[in-house]
Amino acid sequence: MVISFKENFSQEIAIYFDNQSVVDVSENLVKDIPSFSVLGKRFLKNEGFYIEDLKEKGKKRKKQDIRNLSIFDILVPVLMPEIDFDLPQELSFPSKLFPYQVQGIKFLIQNKSALLADQMGTGKTVQSTTALRILFIKGDIKKGLIVVPSNLISVWEEHLKKWAPEVRFITVRDSREGRKILWNIKSHVYLISYDTLKNDYKYEKYMLKEFSENLDLVLLDEAHNIKNPDAKKTKAVHFISKYAKYRWALTGTPLQNNLKELLSLYKFLFPEKEIKRNISPEQAK
Question: What's the predicted TM-score (pTM) here?
């Protein structure tokens, strides 16, 4: 078994397994990797190594043989982020928030089921990222999932780094085999596209079920993507959000064509309430 980390000039970090499988790792997740002396070392099945070789900051570990551990056992000291936060005395922001954004942040924090339908360009991503950050710092949530269109993945990565620096996130992408590893790495936030979630719902439903059982928050960006209740990506969202305590939906166009488009969004926000397929404008209000 070969384990190696590679950092290229664009600062992208990847893990290579046996020179066959490659898994991209969020720079945010591994930014505090401790220094250790086995970088790129080849571990054979019959070869042991010592925990002392995986030195953690400020901790001394007793030398002991951990031969024949699984790949996840080997990666734990490197990839497991800290979950507990030290609450900062003053919460700082990278730039000044507008008054309406402050109101939006308060609205999200105070409502476990919330639809933020501000117009495009008003900073819904900033508001939701900041609200998420505050809930993590307060300890109200410990695990969150953000589902976005594929073309907005990089936007969310940048916003999480800038507006929620304490929060560790993983972008769930790459091959199916690579995603299996990423779903099982411990993190605060998991960022995924609607299409990737749909594919994993189709092929890895049992794994998603286990993942969802301790999920605290599900955030949908461009939430009108689930307007069709019969679409597979809509079913995937409803499936993985079954146990979530917080459900937030962001969209500037919650209603595009007809009232039926509200049904799936309403079901996501309020899964415990019975919804009729045929509703009148009065019922929609």
Answer: 0.70
